[in-house]
Amino acid sequence: MYLIRRGIQIFVISILGFMLLGSPAIAQMKILSVPGCPFFVVVNFSRGLVESAYFRSPAGIQKLLPIEGSLLISQKYSKFDMDKDLTKDILWVLTFGEPTNRQRGLQMWIGYSSRQKTIWVDICPVASTLWDYLPIKLNLPEGVLPYVLPQLPKYDDLPPFGGPKTLTFVCTIKLTNNGPKFVPQPEVYKQLLKIAELVASSERYPKRKESYFYLINDYKNLSSGTPPTLDALKSIQWKRILTLRWNN
Fold first, then answer.
1. Is the pTM of the predicted complex or chain greater than 0.70?
2. Nearest residue to 61 (alpha-carbon basis) of 91, 19, 92
3. 171-230, pLDDT tens digit by residue?
4. pLDDT of 74-101, one tens digit each?
């Protein structure tokens, strides 16, 4: 059965490749996938940019319009057992940059539940922040990945600071029965709290330092299992673009 399924996938890739490479403007086609998963992304690049992209799964083929015109920057994934069956579940995130400014872009988060035979695809904005320049690796629970927001929340009408000099808010994203969600992990926020306190202590710009005061309070709450402020929740721009299910 696996060989038959694999053969069908290769056939579909070949057909897609023929269709995509038929245009003289096409320079390269790439298959993005996680080992052992029943889906993949077919990306057609032209001059380094995503000209078109298709999501292939047992539920069919869907076009991925939001990432067209962008640069593929990176990808990472986590394989774990969420629903306690014999097949690993997957949380996969791909990062894309704007063609004229690689410091800004979007992330595409893909969650897969093997028991539910369901895939969720979400997108959210990203940007370069101080996190990109800190030699820090968080100790994350299995199945959890960090989402670094492009800006600080607009705390108490303070400006939503962003950019390479700003330590922005971080969400811990986990795959749930309803797809990838912000699920606070107290042990992670204890780590983030220490980092935020260190950065805030050396911040010289008064208003950004004030924003860090609110950020630290949010991290203190999250470290103790208390929800963050409404300002923090409002700053999370998360959008679902696909929910795919199949029965076979």
1. yes
2. 19
3. 999 999 999 999 999 999 999 999 999 999 999 999 999 999 999 999 999 999 999 999
4. 999 999 999 878 889 999 999 999 999 9
Tokens of 140: 């994350």
Asked if 29 and 45 touch (Cβ cutoff 8 Å), the reply is yes
Per-residue CA distances from 176 to 139, 147, 223, 230 (Å): 20, 16, 20, 22
β pairing state of 118-127 and 49-57: unpaired
Edge-first strand listing for the sheet containing 71-80: 71-80, 89-97, 104-113, 118-127, 239-245
- Sign of the CA dihedral running 49, 51, 55, 56: negative
Q: CA 52, CA 61: separation in Å to the nearest integer? A: 13
Q: Which long-range contacts (CB under 8 A, 24 or more apart) does 221-228 make?
A: 222/184, 222/186, 222/189, 222/192, 223/186, 223/189, 223/190, 223/193, 224/186, 225/184, 225/186, 227/184, 228/184
Sign of CA dihedral 215, 217, 223, 225: negative
Task: Extract the tokens encoding 160.
Answer: 């939503």
